[in-house]
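Whiteboard transcription, Tuesday session. T.W. wrote the structure tokens on the left side:
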């Protein structure tokens, strides 16, 4: 394909930024990525990713997109110690309604540290001749006006004076959860975008352990979900490179997991199942305990602005940041990168293209946002929204889906296809799934069967209304 554009600038070498750069490399003659941090050569943490020491998930859909952009990267990561997990078979998964039934499936996820994954992607990007990564570059503003962005202003970190401008046909702001894009737009006298923030006051604590050489367990990973409002605590154990286990604890409603040795283990002992405590009580710790609490769901509605400048798009956590426990962030960023490439290739004018992308990105984010915030609304102390009638009906239905999925493989498969972002939420609202869930509800509790049947069979209509809202 003939290149139609000369230069794209991506602000931020996060996973969202790097995936955007890879997608744009198919269209632009050169792509420049400006990153404010120094970029390590190996899998090491950096200040711009304070959550890197905690568990990250590359869901099945995200892994497939990553492989399409970087053929062979899955094998490369496995060669570095990352592990492929069959999400349905390998994880002992305690849902709020019981243990999910386990079976061999096509739902393959990749388990590694965030640092290893970022390093592998960064190495691949450096091999592309039309991509340049520039570390220690702090972007201070946009060049242009409210109608057209022509580039960015930046300076090398550590320099108190000076700076430079970098011209571009397209600027992509992937500046993270604490993005300053809104500030830059105000400087161009553009109105502030509406922001929705839903905060269940969830905190994390994580630690590395040496994985035992021999294990008689029938699982390779553990996920003990919280079940708010009654049970606010969760625990996750996943295998990562270096023959290690990464253990992340979660507590909602400010029931934060401790960061001292005794408190950490006592928190694990108090989870809904002893399986995680039994796994690590005699395991050798390999790291300190790290804490992270900036977990609010934050959505900036850039797509609602009446005017949007030509030559600028924003994506990743700069637009929509999820509570990380649901593992949707990197896969949503991968979906956004695919959509960005489609929009740039669409043949639309740059003005229409940038607005088109922000609207399509809002649709991509909406499904993941609904799943993440819907669960966070179960916490008593959640701020920013309350569970209304629609949310309560959704909770009612999802509870029955998870209950059926403790022994019904078909229902569990449908749920995991949504959780892995291979399908949208409508997959669990298809009539065949709804009927199976309704039958399971009858069998489980006959005295409430009529209530369950009427509520469950109404769910496809509610989902159609939600999807209709997305199309609008």
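and on the right, the sequence the group agreed on:
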């Amino acid at each position: 394909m003939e290149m139609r554009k000369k230069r794209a600038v991506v602000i931020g070498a996060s996973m969202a930024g790097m995936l955007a750069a890879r997608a744009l490399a198919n269209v632009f003659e050169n792509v420049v990525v400006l990153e404010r941090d120094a970029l390590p050569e190996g899998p090491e943490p950096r200040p711009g990713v304070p959550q890197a020491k905690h568990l990250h998930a590359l869901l099945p859909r995200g892994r497939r997109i990553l492989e399409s952009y970087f053929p062979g990267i899955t094998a490369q990561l496995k060669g570095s110690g990352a592990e492929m997990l069959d999400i349905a078979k390998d994880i002992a998964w305690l849902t709020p309604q019981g243990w999910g039934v386990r079976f061999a499936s096509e739902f393959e996820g990749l388990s590694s540290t965030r640092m290893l994954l970022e390093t592998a992607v960064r190495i691949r990007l450096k091999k592309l001749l039309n991509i340049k990564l520039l570390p220690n570059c702090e972007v201070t503003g946009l060049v242009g006006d409210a109608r057209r962005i022509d580039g960015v202003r930046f300076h090398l970190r550590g320099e108190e004076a000076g700076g430079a401008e970098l011209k571009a046909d397209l600027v992509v702001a992937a500046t993270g959860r604490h993005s300053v894009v809104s500030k830059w737009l105000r400087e161009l006298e553009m109105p502030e975008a509406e922001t929705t923030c839903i905060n269940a006051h969830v905190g994390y604590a994580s630690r590395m352990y040496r994985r035992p050489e021999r294990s008689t367990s029938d699982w390779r990973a553990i996920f003990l979900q919280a079940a708010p409002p009654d049970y606010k605590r969760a625990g996750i154990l996943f295998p990562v490179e270096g023959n290690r286990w990464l253990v992340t604890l979660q507590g909602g409603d400010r029931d934060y997991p401790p960061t001292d040795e005794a408190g950490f283990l006592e928190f694990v002992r108090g989870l809904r199942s002893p399986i995680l405590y039994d796994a690590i009580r005699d395991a050798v710790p390999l790291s300190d305990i790290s804490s992270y609490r900036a977990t609010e769901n934050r959505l900036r509605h850039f797509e609602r602005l009446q005017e949007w400048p030509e030559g600028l798009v924003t994506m990743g956590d700069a637009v929509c940041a999820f509570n990380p426990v649901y593992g949707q962030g990197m896969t949503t960023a991968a979906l956004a990168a695919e959509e960005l490439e489609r929009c740039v290739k669409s043949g639309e004018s740059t003005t229409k293209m940038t607005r088109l992308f922000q609207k399509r990105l809002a649709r991509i984010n909406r499904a993941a946002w609904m799943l993440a915030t819907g669960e966070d609304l179960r916490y008593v102390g959640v701020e920013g929204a309350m569970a209304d009638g629609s949310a309560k009906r959704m909770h009612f239905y999802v509870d029955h889906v998870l209950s059926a999925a403790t022994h019904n493989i078909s229902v569990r498969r449908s749920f995991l296809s949504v959780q892995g972002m291979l399908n949208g939420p409508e997959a669990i609202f298809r009539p065949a799934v709804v009927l199976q869930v309704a039958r399971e509800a009858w069998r489980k509790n006959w005295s409430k069967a009529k209530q369950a049947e009427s509520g469950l069979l109404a769910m496809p209509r509610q989902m159609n209304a939600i999807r209709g809202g997305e199309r609008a």
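Someone added at the bottom: The first helix runs from residue 15 to 24.
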